[in-house]
From TrEMBL:
InterPro entries: AAA+_ATPase, P-loop_NTPase, Signal_recog_particl_SRP54_hlx, SR_rcpt_FtsY, SRP/SRP_N, SRP54_GTPase_dom, SRP54_N_sf. The gene is ftsY. It is an enzyme of class 3 (hydrolase). Belongs to the GTP-binding SRP family. FtsY subfamily. GO terms for biological process: cell division; SRP-dependent cotranslational protein targeting to membrane. Gene3D superfamilies: P-loop containing nucleotide triphosphate hydrolases (3.40.50.300), Signal recognition particle SRP54, nucleotide-binding domain (1.20.120.140). Its EC number is 3.6.5.4. It comes from the Bacteria. It comes from Acholeplasma hippikon. This is Signal recognition particle receptor FtsY.
Amino acid sequence: NDKYQMGLHKSKSSFDNLKKLLDESDSIDDDLFDSIEDLLISADIGVDTVLFFTNELRKEVEKQGFETPNQLSELIVDKLFEIYLKGEFVDTTLRFDENKTNVYLFVGVNGVGKTTTIGKLAKQYKDLGKKVLMVAGDTFRAGAIEQLEVWSKRAGVDFYKKEAGVDPSSVIHDALIDAVNKKYDLVLVDTAGRLQNKVNLMNELSKMKRVIQKLLPDSPQETLLVIDATTGQNGMNQAHVFNEATDLSGIVLTKLDGTAKGGIVLAIRHLYNLPIKYVGLGEKIDDLVPFDIENYIYNLFK
Ligand code: GDP
């Protein structure tokens, strides 16, 4: 993806911000650690995660006996990788069984890019030759159903809807029965995102998950929380609320094409152990790429 390559290029030079800070510092002292903390906080990594990080950094600096600031450059990058990876291999691929009807549920507050992400992903699976069905599970807003339908046409995949106002669980139930009968490979489900009515929404989402579980207990499932990189620390709250209600399997971070650095996902990985699967880099159908940790970490310092 050209855009991602361009982003990488931009980020590598942006990484100079960290280098510059280290170059201009005379010694490794509290001032320097403060500046590193500021840099990470301005990248939207939450304060808790930043403090955990600099604490680890201090320990390592002492252990290795570093004395000049420039020695920190590599260590900082390594330590950020460590926080994200937690010593594990982190798989960005989504669970998929060729012989089953796979179901991916997309959750997140309104406006974060759920519909757009579903459209983009539908196109990718369709291009792989998969039979894809999009399901309009946000029956709360009539506009949401129409918008998803537009994306299904754009992606060239099938679309399942009922009228606005019906119970989303019944939409999912009937859609899944249809999908199994017609041998769809993948069902992508949109959901409502009205956080103003949190309790109802969370009950609704759990019910949808129970329906999926009951009808297709042996099919691979994903529950992906879509987060808008430009919302900064609000994303933490969203991760907390949705994770409690729906047992998430991963994150999609959208709108990383702007000035937002998306540090939030490092904090989410650190605090909730949720991996990022995909990154949105624009409004067009091809602007969705698998998460790349190296690119991401350089991007933090732009
Ligand atoms: P939903 O309410 O969560 O379904 O959000 P939508 O999919 O309707 O997206 C809300 C807005 O964000 C739309 O204007 C999209 O074009 C825009 N959007 C979605 N993903 C991205 C992205 O990765 N980058 C940018 N720049 N805009 C995006």
